[in-house]
Amino acid sequence: MVDIRRAAPADAVGICELHRSSIRRLCSASYSPEQIASWTEALQPDRYLPAMERFEFFVAEAGGVVGFCIVDPNGGELNALYVHPGFSGQGFGSALLEYAERVAIAHSVARLRVKSTVNAVTFYESHGFRQVRRALHVNPAGLELECVEMVKDLPRGSRAADAEMESQSD
């Protein structure tokens, strides 16, 4: 079983290291070394703190933080989902995505959007997302990265889903 909890400021350094490792290892076949270097150099621990305050930001734990996801329920968007490469393929990404979907449903999101990295498209498709179009994502450092905009229609929220979310976040 995967433990998922709300991210805390004390997690920022670990999240940043995990994020960099994930990009370097899991995205290297889809993006150039220059893109990877620019992308990871722009990541700094303090950049996660505003997201923790503004969005639904969660971490997966297994003897430490092994993955994270950020959901913007107001925008109906999954802003990020990354797993440490040493834990890739072990169900942590799926657990985070399922949790993110429950969060979105609890906030009455009808359609969840994601700008997927090129390498993660099949992951999202295997979870019911469909491709909308290829696009460019501009990261906070101004780097343009090819991505694939994807969407998934979600079932309508229910009191049971709301109650489950409340019990898991306590």
Mean pLDDT, rounded to whole units?
Answer: 91
Shape type: globular
The radius of gyration over CA amounts to 15 Å
CATH topology: Aminopeptidase
Number of distinct beta strands:
7
Specify the biggest β-sheet: 7 strands, mixed
What would CATH call the architecture? 3-Layer(aba) Sandwich
Question: What's the helix-strand series?
Answer: EHHHEEEHEHEEH
CATH class: Alpha Beta
| Count of discrete alpha- or pi-helical segments spanning 4 or more residues | 6
Give the terminus-to-terminus CA distance.
Answer: 17 Å
Unreliable residue stretches:
158-170
CATH H-level superfamily title: Gcn5-related N-acetyltransferase (GNAT)
Number of domains: 1
Quickly give the structural class: alpha+beta
Structure in words:
The protein has 170 residues and is an alpha+beta fold. The protein has one domain (3-165): Aminopeptidase (3-Layer(aba) Sandwich). It contains 6 helices and 7 strands. The protein has helices spanning 12-26, 33-41, 48-54, 92-106, 121-126, 159-169, and strands at residues 3-6, 56-61, 65-72, 77-83, 111-117, 130-138, 144-153. A 7-stranded mixed beta sheet has the order 1-2-3-4-5-7-6. The longest helix is centred in the first third of the chain and has 15 residues, at 12-26. The chain is globular. Mean pLDDT is 91; it is low at 158-170.
